[in-house]
Design a protein that fits this description.
17% strand, 28% helix, 22 helices, alpha+beta, elongated, disordered C terminus, binds S-adenosylmethionine
Length: 726
């Protein structure tokens, strides 16, 4: 750290890395070094290399500073079930997992979990890659439309689902916390993405407004009463921000509160949300829905304005020219192309939107972000709890349908002759805005009746966690789903092959305290060809035990922690257990392994990492070599001996260094990737130096200062941070 402080580049003082004042426990750091400086200066280059390595391993995450704010306002606890609705590429998901793991002892898993969802498959893959570094059994990654995220029903027949807190009337999985970081026009990133200056136009925000409302509403319907949801965008456009928040507050009619969080994170400089704004459509400023012409009416919605009020044009009154240019409102206000904003009478919202937060770049040298914290006070009005079907819209209100249809047909006299259907669709939208939807789920949305599921089916059904269906009649369809044949998604199956599970338990001497039952997952419906076995936490297991609604498949892209991998034996020898322990899973199962485990001196451990394979006779500690030669053929675990493990070998914690090896006929082979070996060697040299009591040499970065084994964050450039794995 001191060497970084002293560094000068290009003749000028370079500010050393510093903690972000608003991030709790100094866990986020900022640095002003440019990429050029990091490359040119030798000390900084080493620092850069260190950052890259630790980022790859998952000890540090580089991230936009303000992008880390929304999870902080979620007030997440380790036992929380958290839903990250639009999660890719996953920086906030990683942060949420870190918080959940914060006070969890090594070798045990937190009680909570994170469900991270994103619609975009490729971005989902980035998210999976990003969160893989966390090595967590408490994560489900899904690939669904957030606004139609499947609901699920509690299994009333005593499955684990019943242990979860489920609102009885709604009977679906509910979350303690929801992060709703919606897709937005992204103008808040203009500083770091100058390209945005050319691409941006106000239509981008207008086009996203409805989707943002739908996603936020779905988030609130999946939130527990008493739970918190954070709505955020990296846009400063009120149409995507305050207008969305105002509309959801109106729709929720008192069941949701916009929380005043002015006393939380006091060092974060923020500005209050706005209560008045105008809406831009192409080159027109619109102050109220009154100003909206009939041609604009289908993309400029009442909810975009501060009052949220809809003004339907009076019949037979032509409010604008045929070409739709200059709209004249009922008040006679005529916005023109060069209308100045002062000419228009502004609406002011009567909602406490000043409780929203606007973070602007020039306040604390960051990107821009909008954040609103919402709390669910009571169940939402029934109408909002389920996604609605437009075709059922007027089932209970044919009169209204007739009235609106007449009006639309009249209003749309200029439309193509066959556009009546389009018009009906538009009425549906208008009615949705006016909360006139009659919510009647059609058959495909009906919940399966658990009493229709036989015992055997029930087992099978529980085994299938990816898109269950059972109406009693639809067994054929369900069988197909059980085999995981639906498009593009691997099935998620509980792994129950007793012979394999027992061979693993016996071989590694896994003690009884380690819960296997129902925690193992495979993604291959052919039992004989299971290559990987994943481990899931109790929380994830419980979610999988729920019955997701018929027709609403939960598309699971990734789940749990890769714990065991099938290993064909080397040297043609047979081994009693065909599954090796994967590096990712090792920290979780390590405290429970009693066979095939040895403790090596730091010197021998270092040699293993350096040379990757060592003959038994070549170990410095001959006794260790002897013990290694007596291990069973196959996978084994080598732990680095330190003062703690010397006294009690079962005392492993976050600082314990262990690797998977292969015990062959004459040597031990390391089964760790090259990058992991490199990181472990770095860590080892720091540890060995510390043990020797010697101070760290000059010009060498003290990685402990940077909290190598967790917990530091450093900003690489103006807008990039490094977040450590807690
Ligand atoms: C602002 S980004 C999310 C950033 C993310 N929370 C993070 O911190 O890394 C918005 C994400 O929403 C996704 N998205 C867009 N439409 C969606 C939808 N209908 N349902 C779910 N995700 C959607 C996009 O693919 C994009 O990854």
């Amino acid at each position: 750290m001191n060497s970084l402080k002293a560094e000068t580049t290009d003749g000028g003082e370079v500010e050393a890395i510093r903690p972000l004042p608003w991030y709790p426990d100094n866990l986020a750091w900022h640095s002003n070094f440019s990429r050029m400086q990091l490359r040119k200066n030798q000390t900084l280059e080493r620092f850069h290399e260190f950052l890259k390595l630790e980022n790859e391993i998952g000890n540090i995450t580089r991230q936009e500073a303000v992008s880390m704010v929304p999870p902080l306002f979620l007030d997440v606890r380790p036992d929380h079930f958290v839903f990250d609705m639009c999660a890719a590429p996953g920086s906030k998901t990683f942060q949420l997992l870190e918080i959940i793991y914060q006070s969890t002892k090594s070798g045990s898993l937190p009680d909570g979990m994170v469900m991270a969802n994103d619609l975009d498959v490729q971005r989902c893959n980035l998210l999976i890659h990003q969160t893989k570094r966390m090595c967590t059994a408490n994560l489900i990654v899904t690939n669904n439309e957030a606004q139609h995220f499947p609901g699920c029903r509690a299994d009333k027949n005593g499955s684990k689902a019943s242990e979860m807190e489920i609102e009885p009337q709604i009977s679906q999985l509910l979350f303690d916390r929801v992060l709703c970081d919606v897709p937005c026009s992204g103008d808040g990133t203009l500083r770091k993405a100058p390209d945005m200056w050319r691409k941006w136009n106000p239509g981008m925000g207008n086009g996203l407004h409805s989707l943002q409302i739908q996603i936020a509403m779905r988030g609130l319907s999946l939130l527990k009463v008493g739970g918190r949801m954070v709505y955020s965008t990296c846009s400063m456009n009120p149409v995507e921000d305050e207008a969305v928040v105002a509309e959801i507050l109106r729709k929720c009619g008192g069941s949701v509160e916009l929380v005043d969080v002015s006393s939380e994170l006091p060092q974060l400089v923020r500005r209050p949300g706005v209560r008045k704004w105008k809406v831009r459509d192409k080159d027109l400023w619109l102050a109220s829905h009154k100003d909206v012409s009939k041609f604009q009416r289908y993309h400029i919605l009442p909810s975009m304005f501060p009052s949220g009020k809809s003004y339907v044009a009076p019949a037979n009154k032509d409010l604008e020219h045929e070409n739709g240019e200059n709209a004249i409102s009922e008040d006679g206000i005529q916005p023109t192309e060069d209308a100045s904003t002062e000419d228009l009478i502004e609406e002011v919202s009567d909602l406490p939107l000043e409780r929203c937060m606007r973070i602007v770049p020039h306040d604390q040298n960051s990107g821009a972000f909008f954040i609103a914290v919402l709390q669910k006070l009571s169940p939402l009005p029934a109408i909002q709890e389920k996604p609605c079907k437009k075709r059922n819209l007027f089932k209970k209100n044919p009169e209204l349908q007739g009235k609106l249809l007449d009006q639309v047909t009249e209003d749309n006299s200029g439309l193509e002759p066959d556009s009546r259907d389009v018009a009906v669709e538009k009425i549906s939208e208008a009615a949705t805005e006016a909360d006139l939807i009659v919510d009647e789920p059609d058959e495909a949305d009906m919940e399966p009746d658990p009493s229709n599921i036989s015992n055997q089916d029930s087992e099978e059904t529980k085994a299938l966690v990816n898109g269950e269906t059972d109406s009693g009649k639809a067994v054929g369809k369900r069988k197909l789903q059980l085999q995981g044949k639906w498009k593009g998604v691997d099935p998620v199956l509980f792994f129950k092959d007793e012979s394999i599970i027992n061979s693993i338990k016996m071989f590694y001497g896994i003690d009884e305290s380690f819960p296997f039952d129902g925690h193992l997952i495979s993604r291959n419906s052919d039992k004989n060809h299971v290559k990987r076995i994943y481990y899931v936490s109790k929380s994830v297991k419980d979610v999988l035990g729920l019955n997701f609604r018929v027709g609403q498949q939960l598309k699971i892209a990734s789940i749990g922690l890769k714990m065991f991998e099938r290993q064909t034996s080397r040297e043609g020898t047979s081994t009693p257990c065909s599954f090796r322990i994967s590096s990712e899973g090792l920290p979780v199962i390590l405290p429970h392994i009693t066979n095939q485990i040895l403790y090596a001196s730091s010197v021998d451990f270092k040699h293993l990492l350096q040379y990757k394979a060592i003959k038994f006779a070549d170990f410095v500690d001959a006794e260790f070599g002897e013990k290694a030669s007596k291990l069973m053929m196959g996978c084994c675990v080598i732990v680095m001996r330190d003062s703690k493990t010397m006294l009690d070998p079962t005392k492993v914690d976050a600082s314990t260094i262990a690797i998977g090896c292969w015990k062959g006929r004459s040597n031990l082979n390391v089964m760790v990737t090259a990058i992991d070996c490199q990181e472990l060697l770095e860590r080892l040299s720091v540890r060995m130096e510390a043990e020797k009591g010697s101070s760290v040499q000059e010009n060498k970065i003290n990685v402990d200062d940077l909290q190598l084994n967790g917990a530091s964050k450093v900003e690489e450039s103006e807008t990039t941070q490094l977040v450590a794995d807690a």
